[in-house]
UniProtKB/TrEMBL annotation:
Gene3D superfamilies named in the record: Histidine kinase-like ATPase, C-terminal domain (3.30.565.10)
Name of protein: ATP-binding protein
Annotated InterPro entries: Anti-sigma-factor_SerPK, HATPase_C_sf, HATPase_dom
One Pfam entry name: HATPase_c_2
GO molecular function, one term: ATP binding
Keyword Transmembrane attached: no
Domain Histidine kinase/HSP90-like ATPase: 57-166
Assigned keywords, A-Z: ATP-binding, Kinase, Nucleotide-binding, Serine/threonine-protein kinase, Transferase
């Protein structure tokens, strides 16, 4: 894993990687020492402004993703951290399910920007799993399923939840260079999250 590099849509090298044995190991062992404070679940001594980490496609890494998200929001209360981690996990689920980032040796990057009034998270994936591309000069944005929050809905929950609970969200609109983001304001007073019956 190369944590700090840019995620490009194409990674010709990945298919040519020589086989290595599978291993079960503590997740701390895959985190370089310089990045361990991203996963500590504790606030930094100083306020960070931007934090970025690249994850591999293995589902076994998802606890690390949740630790990253929770730690990005470690300076806020448990309610905010829970919601931020929940919404961030939906972006990751979508990158793994609907983009090439979920393929063997795939990867995606999470970037958290800390603003005065909230956190902005971007998930950059490796482009549409089907290989679909967006013609130059056009953008086709993701659209939430209007029935995604229905109690019986079996799909379409991720973007519908983002639409309902994030302060704002959007995506790059380019299938081969997909970046999906949301902003979650610290003040959840008017959020549907706090107003739920
Ligand atoms: N990162 C992504 N790359 C490509 N398509 C995406 C991505 N995220 C979401 N989508 C598209 O948006 C649709 C709705 O996403 P979501 O609401 O999370 O529902 P679900 O994941 O259950 O299909 C997906 O079915 C997919 O077509
Ligand atoms: Mg989804």
């Amino acid at each position: 894993m190369v944590p700090m590099s840019a995620v490009g849509p194409h990674d010709p090298g990945a298919t040519e990687l020589p086989p290595l044995p599978q291993a079960t190991l503590p997740l701390w062992d895959v985190v370089p020492a310089r990045a361990r404070h991203y996963f500590h679940h504790a606030p930094d001594r100083g306020a960070y402004t931007t934090r970025r980490y690249e994850f591999g496609s293995s589902l076994e890494l998802l606890p690390l993703v949740r630790a990253f998200l929770n730690t990005c929001a470690a300076h806020r209360d448990a309610d905010y951290r829970y919601l931020f981690t929940l919404l961030g996990s939906e972006l990751v689920n979508n990158a793994l399910t609907h983009s090439r980032s979920g393929h063997p040796h795939g990867r995606y990057a999470l970037t958290c920007r800390r603003r005065g009034n909230g956190l902005h998270l971007t998930c950059a994936d490796q482009g549409d799993a089907s290989g679909r591309t967006t013609p130059a000069g056009e953008t086709h944005h993701l659209v939430p399923d209007p029935h995604g929050l229905d109690p019986g809905a079996e799909r379409g929950r991720g973007l519908a939840m983002l639409d309902a609970l994030a302060t704002g969200w959007g995506d790059s609109g380019i299938a081969e260079l997909r970046q999906v983001w949301f902003f979650l304001a610290y003040d959840l007073t008017d959020s549907r999250w706090t107003q739920a019956p």
